[in-house]
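Is this the right way to post C-alpha cells for a design question? Let me know if I should format differently. Anyway, here goes:
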C-alpha cells in the first residue's frame, strides 16, 4: 500500500472532494482503512470500468496471455501473414458478407451556387 494514498475512513470523510478529484488522474486510487486495516478502495469510474472489463475478458478468454505470446512469435516469424481475414472467418461460420459497393459516391467539385431571392418574391407569399 502506498502510504500517501492510504487514509483512514475518518480522514477520507474530511477530504472526500479532494480525493474524488485526485482519483480522476490515471492509475490513482486511495485505500481507506479502519483501525489500520484496509477496508475499501476509491478509484474513478473510468478506472473501475477498465478493470472490470479486463476481468470479464480474462474470464471469457482464459488462454489470452498464451494467445498473445503465440501471436507475437508469429509476428516475428511472419507467420501472421497467413492468418485468415475476418471475412474468411465469418464466411466459414456461415455469415453472409455483403458485397462491397461497386459504385463510388463522392462530393462534386463545385457546389451549386446559392440563389438569392428575386424581387417581389416575398410580397407574393403573403
Amino acid at each position: 500500500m502506498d502510504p500517501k494514498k492510504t487514509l483512514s475512513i475518518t480522514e477520507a470523510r474530511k477530504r472526500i472532494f479532494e480525493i474524488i478529484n485526485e482519483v480522476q488522474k490515471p492509475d490513482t486510487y486511495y485505500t481507506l482503512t479502519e483501525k489500520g486495516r484496509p477496508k475499501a478502495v476509491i478509484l474513478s469510474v473510468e478506472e473501475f470500468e477498465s478493470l472490470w472489463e479486463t476481468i470479464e475478458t480474462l474470464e471469457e478468454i482464459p488462454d489470452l496471455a498464451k494467445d498473445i505470446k503465440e501471436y507475437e512469435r508469429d509476428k516475428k516469424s511472419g507467420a501472421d501473414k497467413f492468418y485468415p481475414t475476418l471475412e474468411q472467418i465469418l464466411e466459414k461460420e456461415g455469415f453472409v458478407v455483403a458485397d462491397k459497393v461497386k459504385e463510388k459516391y463522392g462530393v462534386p467539385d463545385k457546389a451549386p451556387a446559392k440563389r438569392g431571392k428575386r424581387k417581389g418574391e416575398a410580397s407574393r407569399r403573403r
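Format looks fine. Someone answered above. Worth noting: Helices lie at 9-14, 16-22, 45-60, 64-77, 86-92, 121-125. The mean pLDDT is 84.
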